[in-house]
Amino acid sequence: MPASPSEQNVTVRLVVNDRAHELEADAGETLLATLRDRLGLTGPKEACGEGECGACTVLVDGGPVASCILAAGSTNGRAIRTVEGLAGAGDLTTLQQAFVRHAAVQCGYCTPGVLMVLTALLEEVSEPTEAEVRQALAGNICRCTGYQQIVEAAVDAARAVAS
Fold this sequence. Notes:
By secondary structure, the protein is an alpha+beta fold. The protein contains five helices and five strands. It has helices spanning about 30-40, 95-100, 110-125, 130-135, 150-160, and strands at about 10-15, 20-25, 55-60, 65, 80.
């Protein structure tokens, strides 16, 4: 009797935060599980488990993805960036600094995913409008902030980089 898909292992070679990794993963293992359980990167959070809330968002080849529904095996050969890879040790990116200035963080659970979505936006659009920031945030649920401080922080960070 052949092994079920969840019993099959796949070799995954990926680069996470500029570090190469090779590991055996269960065919059904999510990228989120790989990042958190195997690589110890706890920035991406598990919340909905359905790709709807944005807490698990990471960048794959520069684009935001819900790591809770993406099979780890599908990331073979790809570059992944988590919130831990945004800045050097002890440093903050311009966006992270703007979050601090604008008090854009309350409980913090959604913050890693929000930072990843906005990082991708700011890498693509140098000076996004408030509407573009809100559109980028559409897949991220924050129950604490009301989003205004987050939007202000993103626009402020874009201005700081542009000047």
